[in-house]
Amino acid sequence: MSTTRKRVYGYLAEFKSASALYKAAEKVRDAGFRKWDCYSPYPIHGLDGAMGMKRSILPWFVFFGGITGTATAFTLAYTTQVVIYPTVVQAKPANIFSVPAFFPVMFELTILFSGFTVLFGLLGLIQLPRLNHPLFASKQFHRATDDAFFIAIEARDPKFSPNQTKELLSSIGGENIELVEEED
Amino acid sequence: MANIFPRWSNLLPLKIAVCAGSAAAGVALAFSYYATPKALNVGYQPSQPIPFSHKIHVDQLGLDCRYCHSFVDVSGHSNVPTGSTCWNCHQHVQRESPKLAPLHKSMNPTHPGYDGKPIEWVKIHKSPDYVYFNHSAHVNRGISCQTCHGDVNKMEVVYQAQPHSMSWCLDCHRAPEKNLRPLEEVYNFNYNAEDYVSKHGAALGVKTTEELGLKLKEQFKVKPKESCATCHH
Amino acid sequence: MSKRIWQHPEVPAGETTVSWRSVGQLEDTPAFREWLDREFPQGAAEMADESEAETSRRSFLKLMGASTALAGFGMAACRRPETYIVPYTKAPEWVIPGKATYYASAMPRACGATPLVVTTFEGRPTKLGPNSLHPDVCGTDAFAQASVLDLYAPNRSRRFLSSGKPAKRADFEAVLAGLAANKAAKIGFLFGADDSPTRARLTKELAAKFTAAKFYQYEALAGEASKAYGDGAKPVADFSKADRILSLDCDFAGVDPQGAVTPFFDRRKPEGKTYEQTPDESKMNRLYVVESAYSLTGGMADHRLRVAPTEVLKVAGQIARELGLPIAKGVNEIKDAKTLSWIKPMVADLKAAGGKAVVLAGSRLPAAVHHLALAINTALGAIGEGKPLAVVQTDAKGLGSLADLKADLDGGAIDTLVMLTPANPVYDAPADLGFEASLAKLKTSIHLGERTDATAHAATWHVPAAHYLEAWSDTRGARGAYTIVQPMILPLYQDCVSEIELLLALLSDSGKLINGEGEKGAPSPAYDAVRKTFASLGGGGEAAWKTLLRDGFLAGSSYSLAAASQAPTAEADIAAANIEAGKAGEPSKDSLQVVFSADSSVFDGRWIDNAWLQEIPDPISKLTWDNAALIAPKTAKELGIYDQIVEVEQYSDAVPYVVPAQGKFAKVGPDGEGENRKQRMIEVTVNGKSLELPVLISFGQAENTIVIPLGYGQGFDKDDELGRKTDQQGHVGLVGVNRGFNAYPLRTSATSYIATGAKVKFLEGKTYSLALTQEHSSMYGRALAREVSTMEDEHKGSFKQQLANVSKQGNDSHAPPNVYLYKPETSSTWHPGPDGKAQPLINDPLHQWGMSIDLSSCMGCAACSIACQAENNIPVVGKEQMARGREMHWIRMDRYYATQKDNTFDADNPAFVPQPVACVQCESAPCETVCPVNATIHTEDGLNAMAYNRCIGTRYCANNCPYKARRFNYFDYNKRNPLIKHNLYHGPFGTKAVGDAEHLQKNPNVTVRMRGVMEKCTYCVQRLKDAVIRQKRGQKQEALVAGKPSTEMEVTTSTLRVPVDSIKVACQEACPADAITFGNLLDKEKSAVGRTKSIERNYDLLNYIGTRPRTSYLARVKNPNQHMPDAPFIGKSTIHMV
Amino acid sequence: MASTTQTAPETQTGVKLPVLEREKLILNGRSYHWITERICGVLENRQPLLWWLLFIPSALIAMIGVGGGLTYLVSTGVGVWGMSNRVFWGFDITNFVFWIGIGHAGTLISAVLFLTRQNWRTSINRAAEAMTIFAVMCAGIFPAFHVGRVWFAWFLAPVPNANGIWQNFKSPLLWDVFAVSTYFTVSLIFWFLGMVPDLATIRDRAKPGLRKTLYGIFALGWRGGNRQWSHYEMAYLLLAALSTPLVLSVHSVVSFDFATSVVPGWHTTIFPPYFVAGAIFGGFAMVLTIMVPARFIYGLQDLITMKHIDNMAKIILLTGTIVGYAYLMELFVAFYSGAIYEMDAFKYRIAGPYWWAYAAMMSLNVLSPQVFWFKRCRENLWVIMVVAMCVNVGMWFERFVIIVTTLARMWLPGDWKTYSPSGVELMTFVGTIGMFLALFLLFLKFLPCINIAEVKWTLPESDPHFDDKEHHPDHGVKNEAAYQKELV
What's residue C670's pLDDT? Predict the structure, then answer.
């Protein structure tokens, strides 16, 4: 620990297993914390509930993304084929009845647009890419992507207090609890 | 164990995205303006071997287009006048004007340096080789020279007035009424639809220029085609 | 308007941007430049601009690429390549820039001139069409159509040669002057068999001037007919008067014309020439053919008898015998009952025709047969005024033969020879004659020719000849109508001399050679000579001359009739021939008979350097770029060439694997297919000489007979597949080199056309690759090219019933009707019309184009394909690509053989049914819907348009085309030279395009396609558009005439619609058989095409798919004689198919 | 495979039911860390010599075949390939359809098996997705370069232009353009998203330096917090849901190229399902061909177990049989049509000039997979490899048969001509195989070839209620009581 004062990010505590983390999460939730998170190498079933989180709203983004795709495709096809420059191919009609021929493209663009919405929607929701984060400064946190389970409670949380929070964490089975400070 | 990326890197992706996006948009816009016939062709005004002024010949002297471009209404190709056409008048008129030196060179055997070689006019209105535009098909059906070549009668030096791009052609083929004229007025550069309507409107039973156009389209049975073979074969 | 002034910098030397725009400049070869200058003495005219425009069409796409590239980098904005408009200084009369000018002229030929109308653009002849005013017109055959290419041929002779080495014109002029001065010169003239009044006149003058002069005539395949008809006399048939025609090995519809053939085909149509009558078989003619190998005429036959070549004499004799002619006794009787059973009813039929029957003998047959034919015709009362046959006296009288010439050469009667014949005596004279040796003895021999062929090299002097489109001359039609030959253009290369000009030079005292044009632009002396001749023929005065130039012929002029009496030598000749035939005896596999036939592509070899003719498949064998020995299947097996009999593939409805698949299920034939085709080779030994050449199975050919087309093998280079000697490489150009096998050395004077006692050795393991355009000869049970018979059929009933059933033949008999989900005729858009309602897209109320092809008169000659090639700038692709199946012909001439399993008369004589297939312009075109970029869509007037500049070449359209009518440019055929081996595969490093003048033939109104582009027939859309636009001018004229303002003139359909049947497409125009009808379907019954669509013979090819093609076919009608033994098997190719 | 029988508690009915233990997906009770170690090992340790022995030649082949071949093609003309004015498509489209087909397994495994909660997929989906990407890249080459004027290929893109002309949206080929590009893009997204947490793992294991930086960038700063996981899971689910119809659509659209035509033998309605089945069939075969050796080389037997292979074998058996059914149904339809053109088309396929191609197709695609009826064959890796190879070849022949034999004997006998490929064509095809291998090897070298995170949660202890079942009876599979409840 260097002696210069740094901004504190919060406490990071490790738990021995997924189930331990699960139980701990319930407790932290009940303690009424808001700015905290559980870190695990893989998604843990039911942890959302244990942490009292709401269901992701991503599907709504994607729904509208998809609609946009369909609309784009239809407009593109219909205006060019019927409105702007109708052509006779194989004596096929160039009017509303030629729409069935546009379905494949409409479908594909729907998927394409949805796909992009998923990607960018997700990145937006989880605020990535963010390459720099205080937690990366922690000595043990790198195991979070391997085999360790952590809970981190942020100092920004109104309920956060240097001592009680630390006790809480240890009381619910947190080990090698660490005070994470932001680098300069 | 420490952060490998500085904190400022957190905003970097966003910045990059914004810059790249706007750059792309800029390029697209620039291209769609500068790289289209509208910008590339319109206003092309090369200097000609003889500074021939359409303004003088058409506007002041009132020459008909067909005096020089004599085959415009019989051939697909509107011919440029032969040396002799110019010589007809200019062996008498303005004979000594220094501007006419090239003409003398090709027409006047007594001229020093006479070689009888034709004058090389610089081509202004170019349609690609795979486009078969037919002048006679247009001027004989009520489309004026002016419609495509602009106010040549006002031009000291001829320039390209219209983009002559395919979409430009299509615009007229889809709505010919906008440009149709009575056949008598095809070569009249001072034609004005309003005046015409006010003069003959009553006789034709039309009040506005739009009505005139539609009337002529109906009357002449003008049905321009849009399919490829109309211009490409 | 922003006026940005560009000050163009001087174009620096080596500036390339300009040359994109003008290939004219790019290819600024001296020849081209010089041609330009001399074409318009007052200074290169607008031509320069036009030629630039049209030559750069060849590179238009690259150009587009370039300009888009430029645009891409925004460079075009800073400097655009400058191009120039170069007007005439003094405008030539009649030349309207951008419009074609048409002139009447003619192509002089041995069989009678082909009257032509020549299309020229700013002085460049680009296309030939028939002169329909001419009395002897019969379309234009492939040779005539292709002859325009010779004008621009890259290998065309363009400079004087002395003993094969380039020489100075001056030196030759010296020689000429010497000759002209020496009135006692022992000079001989060797003419061709074409007839030119002016030449005939000059001949007399020459005879007067050079007392010792002698005159000869030679054509390689002239035949012996004159022996029967007298010196310079020849028979000419008038088929309009012939109800019954018997052809004794006479291909009068193909390479052995006997007078205008169109009337013959008119009478193959039961509805009459213009389809106006109700079908009436009695108005049809009937054709009997006795021949040894299939010819185009044989393909048209109602009854065909295949006999060995020597047997023809017996057949003729037998006919004479049946007619009770004394002359017949000279010929052995025919014992074979089968043949007799065929001859007897046939003769009866001829007799019954009462003077409306004619017998034609092939010119390659021995004199004896011609004697007999004359006798028979006389007996039938076929000869005379208003009769099917006339014997006419040509001007070519008192000319010696090649044998005479040879004698005079050796005897020293002449020491100077002027060879003007289009033939190539050193190459094609009978081997035993030793002409070359005698020629070599001469101190002066002058050869005038368009090619530097063997004779050109053998002669001491070769003079480059002017093409007939470059020279003033005259000639005669088949029946002798005086016909003018006028130049369209000055000689492309200034040393080219015309026949007349050369003769005139000799006639003049100075001997000065004036060719092309006289001093100070005065016309060529030939012009005056021709006018003089014309005047002497009663065409005095300027008006008559102008009429002649306009019409192309002198009305009312014709040959005088000759006395058609039996020649005194008849008996003797017949006796001799009979003995010969007796000696030869029946052909057997150890002593075969060989027919040396004229070739449908190179004729006698004179067209070996014509790329169009080389690439057009032989109508019978479908062979391109080569010749081969044609042998009947059974004979081929007996000779051990094939281990089993190669049959016309049979359709098998058997289940695969249950039956042996041999020869079934469209398997690849024994020789392979496409580029893998390796043809077996044999060695033919006859007259003590032998020749190795590949074998091609030929169906319907007489057993133990070999047919070898002549005219090939004139020179080889290092690329030759068989590594033959290259010493004669210089005799041919790129087109003709390494082409086929030369059979002339096998010929002797006695056996110039038919040789007997030939031996054949099968060269095991030795092969040669041939390029065939059609690999499978049967219809595989599909009723494609449909036939009916005027005779009652036990299953299908009477002629009437068969006609009614035409559209229900084959698969169509049980195919369900096509059902559409949407109304297909007029698919609509949301563009409201004047009535406010949605308007249809195929909506042109003036023109809806349509075509029909009458299989009853189509014989399968490829004239249409070549006409199309000339009109539409279709490239040549070379043998290599042809073999791969990459031909570019927009019209593919399919040819099917149909065998009747139960044919008890002669099962090995299958029916021959040709079927030309081009794009049929489906109204519901499968190709259109699959193009991702809209490069092929339907036009308002019902064409299936193809926008080359939009095409990216996915080739999907072509896959989806049931007729396989689309052609893809796999290589840059116009930019790279396809004639050099593998050159196309060298891409950018390959040799550039052929020649420096070839592009001058291109039609400026048709885009020249680059590689990677799909192309196809579009009904000559450029012609249609031109006609439609010309029609539009009428509106104004009407207004002027009426003296009313245009706004008060009512513009009616009649103003804007092209007059009924006034427009012809290239193939239709060329067709000698009038088999193609084209026109505006909206004219309904008024137009011929409208009528064809409503007659019963009309059917759609592959109707089952429901493409609703605009081109439909008319079923072929066979008109058999029901008393003939083979009658039940005639016209049955498709009627029993289900 | 261990399956111990235990005694279950008495049920109301009094029947004692044996409880079968589910087969483990990960063997020998490996730990989280072991998994990480093992999978990251593949790309952290130096590559075995074999890797280089495979990579260098395949990279060379790719360069010569694809690079050289295409340069020659574009500079000289499509004529350097073997097509003619009779057979306009040959190797080009055959290879295109072949590769696109291969490209189907990946997304199918990831998406469809994910939706159907087939946890066994976790061990193979990453590699399979990689295959998809690379296969589609190979596929794309052919349609792109088979066009006559590739420099005008941009005509296919609906961009506004001064010519005012547009594409033809009725053309299956245009549908293809959209379908394939969409498929490629979405697969890429799917692949990348799935990889982000694993990239984070690698980042966190790497020593500071370029390597760490690069992985760091691509990991986007992933932290593995549950607030990220929950959105991430949702995103993954959505992508799976989107990709499933996409996979089915792509090959359907490809089949439209043929099915919407009028060509006998192409114009048939069974093409879409038949093509999709064929694609899955060929795709799985290719997965096996690649994964079985890889599994050995990198010792991943515990992750890619015999169970995985067994499942894939079963899928091959199923789809292979579907394809066989389609072949026969084609024949029946043709026979039943009563149209001579249809009947002949198939006759000439079976017994015509290319009978050998048809025979190869039938035997390799329909017969060879039938051995998978026998468990012994499904367990013998040699048999599996052989069959997989057969299927790869067979599926190529299927496309060859469909395209070439049909075009060589179409409507008018007058234009029949056979087709044979040119050397350049062969070279390019081999080149794409090299390219595919090279790319896959690079993938093994630089990216986690197995989905680390997903494999971890297939471990029993990944369940948060691993040690106390009673309170949450509906979780986990080893809870007998719950299991009994489910039964009765």
Answer: 87
Work out the angle between the directed axes of helices C30-39 and C46-55 (0-180°, nearest 10). Answer: 140
**Secondary structure tally for chain A: helices H, strands E:** 5, 4
pLDDT at D481 over 60: no
Given this model, what pLDDT does residue C651 score? Answer: 75
Chain B touching partners, 3 or more CB pairs below 8 A: A, C, D
Interface membership of C97 toward B (CB under 8 Å): yes
- Residue C114 CB contacts under 8 Å (≥ 6 apart), including other chains: C106, C107, C130, C140, C141, C144
Give domain status of residue A1, yes or no.
Answer: no
Q: Position C299: which residue type?
A: G
- Asked whether the beta carbons of residue D173 and residue C954 sit closer than 8 angstroms, the reply is yes
Both ends of chain D: CA-CA distance in Å?
A: 27
Q: What is the pLDDT of residues D248-272, one digit of tens each?
A: 999 999 999 999 999 999 999 999 9
The answer as to whether B151 is a domain residue is yes
Work out the burial of residue C840: count CB atoms within 10 Å of its CB; fewer than 13 is exposed, 13-18 middle, 19 or more buried.
Answer: middle
Residue D6 has pLDDT above 50, yes or no: no
CB contact at 8 A, C402 and C408: no
B91: domain range?
A: 82-120
Residue A3 lies in a domain: no
Q: What is the least distance, in Å, from the CA of D173 to any CA of chain C?
A: 6
Residue D462: which pLDDT band, with cuts at 50, 70 and 90?
confident
d(CA D251, CA D100): 8
Q: Quick one: pLDDT band at residue C828, thresholds 50, 70, 90?
A: very low
Other beta carbons within 10 angstroms of residue C122's beta carbon come to: 24
Q: What is the pLDDT of residues A67-110, one digit of tens each?
A: 999 999 999 999 999 888 888 888 888 888 889 999 999 999 99
Among B66, B92, B120, give the residue marking a domain's end: B120
Return the higher-pLDDT residue of C829 and B50.
Answer: B50
Do A30 and A115 lie in a common domain? no
Residue-level pLDDT at D483: 42
Contacts of C703 (CB under 8 A, 6+ apart): C308, C587, C632, C634, C635, C908
Domain containing A103 equals 58-125
Model-level pTM?
0.90
Question: What was the pLDDT predicted at C92?
Answer: 82
Task: Using an 8 Å CB-CB cutoff, list chain B residues near C63.
Answer: 128-129
| CA–CA dist A104, C52 (Å, integer) | 46
C1054-1081 burial: b if 16+ Cβ within 10 Å, else e: ebbbbeebebbbbbbbbbbbbbbbbbbb
- C830 closest CA partner among A83, A99, A85, B172: A83
CB contact under 8 A, A97 and C822: yes
CA distance C270 to C276: 10
Contacts of D164 in chain B (CB under 8 A): 165-167, 170
Residue D307 to residue D131: CA distance in whole angstroms: 21
- ipTM for the complex? 0.90
**Other CB atoms within 10 A of residue C588 CB:** 14
Domains of chain D, each with CATH number or no CATH: 49-148+165-446 (1.20.1630.10)
d(CA C730, CA C92): 40
Tell me the C-alpha distance between C735 and C980, whole Å. Answer: 9
**Both tokens of residue C561?**
């009739």
Task: Select from C825, C828, C929 the Cβ nearest to the Cβ of A95.
Answer: C828
Per CB-CB distance under 8 Å, the chain D contacts of C61 are 149
- For the record, the structure tokens of C59 come out as 């590179």
Alpha-carbon distance values, C1000 to A137, C156, C516, C1109, D5 (Å): 80, 14, 19, 35, 94
**Spatial separation of the C-alpha atoms in residues C810 and C784, rounded to whole Å:** 8
Partner residue opposite C1046 with nearest CB, options B74, B106, B183: B183
**B146 in a structural domain:** yes
